[in-house]
Design goal:
Length: 669
């Protein structure tokens, strides 16, 4: 359970378009090929012309801030070869010096606090996407990495230094492989011990200024967190009361005095239920918490407190657009910030002296880059300029936010669903644009207007419109909306896709007879479910690491995830829920999927096991539908290595070209 960043990480999966196939696919032999770590079935050879056409779009990259070093440089995560690695940048638009050279993607964790005597950072690394992350210390003086955790089949994440650098807290499944405990390491001796072993999914939030206490949270679901404080000397765990009994939270930090706390919560205020999460401050003995963002009717997505105790920055998510707010401490008075480009923030970090704020900014027409704000002078400096493959960024398409009516009503009026709409700039050759509907995962995620080279390729190179809906169950639109797809209401979100198909059919510029659906993880389930219900209106679909049957998914997902997913989807051990899963799961209804399907999977996926992909491929293929299958043996829940991601992206484009972009029938392999 990750600590809340300033704003949720930006997710982007590759996708792209396709001609219809005739004939009985069940009578055609399955053509299986194994090349290195890649397994394909019925995926044709990728034409050289297509690879060349995609090349520049697949060579865009972004950069994200991970923290400051003690000498005033920034740690940045970016990719220049196969995987994302750690780099250092020491001035605006300065040279990026690569520090780590791992074969696997790394995640940069916490940096050593200034004044600790340490000079380096902690990073995480798994093997082949299995998500059994181990933690490593990178020493900037020696340029050497040292393993910190057990190196076994344990999951270790979210490293957090105490303010003096003497201790390192992190979450780990090392005790029993199922529960996620909070561990604390004496960093000098590298001896670690679990300090919270209550069972469930726990995370460390913050050390007190004196290092004697630590704020922790237990995560049950997006709507249910339980905060507490552990005394590190005695091991005593004291849980804080939660107004209303159950609520969602978004981070806890000690105030600079070590007594009060800042946190984000959707607990009731004065007995009134709250739709959105607000930033709050509470000091012992002060009565009710002080609401700091109550004037903003949107979620606070995260916040940070400067080490010098003079500033707090928080971000709000306003209809998918991020807004940044600065408060001076201890008075909590608003402070001015320079005007920022409209976009999405991926993280923020105060400099050790508290004078500067680094943040990651992503927009729909530019990849993530790092900017630094001078808090005293108000200046804004760009520290990285990521490549866009030599493309003209002025030609990129920015989406518009639309809302379309769905099947049910709110206060007597049709409920509307928000969606980002990417329209090609060039006129449609046939008068109407074909459409790809991209469905996010989660299900508690939110599609944001971030830079996506796949969407830009679809729009600029293939003349395809892209619609990215936030169907019910998405975060960012209030607690009621978030819970509309829970339990027995799971297929209501699929009905929102049906309503989008209705909306597409009514738009004069869109071709309602050429619609494809695309999604990963839970979005992959949504692709399969949409094809199950609307194959008569959907030409083709691409499912990446998607759930095909909730019962088998919950049985086979890793032990540490099972109860977390039961909280969202339902408990398969309940006969009524098991019967519901059987009714709604695409695997049980494969005979209704009457459209070409492309299924892509990572062999090491700990979340959605590869068996979910294999079983739906076999079932739909037996139903007589063209099915392409792709699996990488060195990937997990998505494709982290550039060569794998590039191949999938090219295969996806070819699939769209074969099954979406034609205007009639008769196209065959």
């Amino acid at each position: 359970m990750p600590r809340t960043a300033l704003l949720a990480p930006i997710l982007a999966l590759a996708c792209v378009p396709a001609l219809a196939q005739t004939g009985d696919a069940s009578s055609q032999a399955v053509v299986r090929e194994e090349r290195g770590n890649r397994v394909t079935e019925n995926v044709p050879e990728i034409p050289a012309e297509l690879l060349q056409r995609l090349n520049r779009y697949q060579n865009t990259r972004g950069a994200s801030v991970a923290g400051w070093t003690r000498d005033g440089c920034l740690l940045v995560g970016t990719r220049f070869a196969e995987t994302t690695q750690a780099h250092r940048v020491c001035e605006p638009l300065g040279m990026r010096e690569q520090l780590t050279f791992e074969a696997e993607r790394i995640g940069i964790g916490d940096t050593a606090p200034a004044g600790s005597g340490l000079d380096g950072f902690v990073y995480s690394k798994d093997v082949g996407g299995d998500e059994f992350w181990q933690l490593f210390w990178y020493d900037l003086a020696t340029r050497e990495s040292t393993l910190l955790t057990d190196g076994k089949r344990s999951r270790n994440e979210e490293p957090l230094f105490s303010h003096d650098g003497g201790r390192l807290a992190y979450s780990s499944t090392a005790r029993n492989g199922t529960d996620t405990d909070v561990w604390v390491m004496d960093f000098a001796s590298r001896q670690a011990r679990p300090v919270v072993t209550e069972g469930g999914n726990w995370g460390a939030e913050d050390f007190s200024p004196d290092g004697g206490r630590m704020l922790v949270t237990r995560y049950v679901s997006i709507n249910e967190w339980y905060p507490g404080e552990v005394d590190l000397a005695s091991g005593e765990l004291r849980m804080f009361p939660v107004d209303g009994g159950k609520a969602g939270f978004g981070g806890f930090r000690y105030a600079p005095d070590g007594d009060g706390v800042f946190y984000v919560s959707d607990e009731p205020i004065d007995g009134e239920p709250q739709e959105f999460r607000t930033l709050r401050y509470h000091a012992p003995g002060s009565g009710a918490p002080k609401i700091l963002s109550g004037h903003i009717p949107w979620d606070v997505s995260g916040f940070e407190v400067s080490d010098d105790g003079r500033h707090l920055v928080y971000a709000t998510n306003e209809d998918g657009i991020a807004r940044l707010h600065l408060l001076r401490l201890p008075g909590l008075t608003p402070a001015a910030l320079p005007e920022l480009p409209v976009g999405v923030f991926g993280g923020a970090s105060f400099s050790p002296d508290g004078r500067r704020l680094a943040l990651t900014l992503n927009t729909a027409t530019s990849p993530s880059d790092v900017y630094v704000i001078d808090l005293a002078g108000g200046g804004l400096a760009r520290w990285t300029r990521s490549e866009v493959g030599g493309l003209d960024s002025d030609a990129f398409v920015a989406p518009t936010l639309i809302r379309y009516p769905t099947f049910d009503a709110v206060d007597g009026r049709p409920r509307t669903i928000p969606a980002f709409y990417y329209t090609p700039k060039a006129p449609a050759p046939g008068g109407k644009y074909p459409v790809v509907v991209s469905i996010h995962g989660g299900p508690e995620g939110q599609a944001l207007p971030t830079f996506n080279p796949t969407f830009q390729f679809l729009a600029n190179e293939l003349g395809v419109a892209v619609l990215v809906p936030n169907v019910r169950g998405s975060s960012g639109y209030g607690k009621t909306y978030l819970q509309l797809d829970n339990g027995m209401r799971r297929e209501d979100s699929v009905k929102d896709i049906g309503a989008l198909l209705d909306w597409i059919a009514q738009q004069p510029e869109l071709d309602g007879e050429r619609v494809g659906v695309y999604g990963g993880s839970y979005g992959g389930y949504m692709v399969l479910a949409s094809l199950m219900h609307y194959s008569d209106r959907i030409r083709a679909g691409i499912d990446i690491v998607g759930i095909s049957h909730f019962g088998t998914f919950l049985k086979n997902t890793e032990d540490y995830r099972r109860d977390l997913r039961r909280a969202e989807y339902g408990d398969e051990r309940d006969p009524e829920m098991a019967a519901h899963f059987e009714r709604i799961s695409p695997l049980s209804n494969a005979g209704r999927i009457a459209a070409p399907l492309f299924v892509a999977q990572g062999r090491n996926d700990p979340r959605v096991p590869y068996t979910e992909a294999e079983q739906i491929v076999e079932a739909v293929r037996n139903n007589g539908q063209p099915v392409w299958f792709l699996m990488f043996d060195d990937e997990g829940h998505g494709f982290a290595k550039k060569s794998n991601s590039d191949y999938f992206g090219a295969a996806a484009v070819l699939f769209w070209q074969r099954f979406l972009l034609d205007h009639g029938t008769g196209a065959t392999d």
